[in-house]
Design goal:
4 helices; 141 residues; single chain; mainly alpha; elongated
Length: 141
Amino acid sequence: MEGGEAGGGGGGLLQQILSLRLVPRMGNGTTTYSSPLSTFPEMWYGVFLWAVVSSLAFHVPAALLALFTLRHHKYGRFMSVSVLLMGIVGPITAGTLTSAAIAGVYRAAGKKMIPFEALIFGVGQTFCVVVVSFLRILATL
């Protein structure tokens, strides 16, 4: 089970995510998960999935904290649902577009993206959303 490329079993997905092998490959089996992402869909999918995973990693604990602290409030307990929805809807809408823009720039430049770059761009999108949220820049406009 140690050297399985395709992987089978429950721990395969978690191991794939934690080892930066997030984008599944199709082909004749000669490419590895650590090889560069060369096509537009591979690059877009890698950046998009890291944006979703990092957003959920931030918003799920925040939603649980909101639910725990506001559980006795009449309407406040529903704020946790809105926090969780923002963690899902944000990356699906804006994350799709920004991930496509990043992948498009890489594809137009003829560059290949290593999986670590996809991680940096995906987590970077979530980091930018968190910074804008905490600084309340939008409230000043």
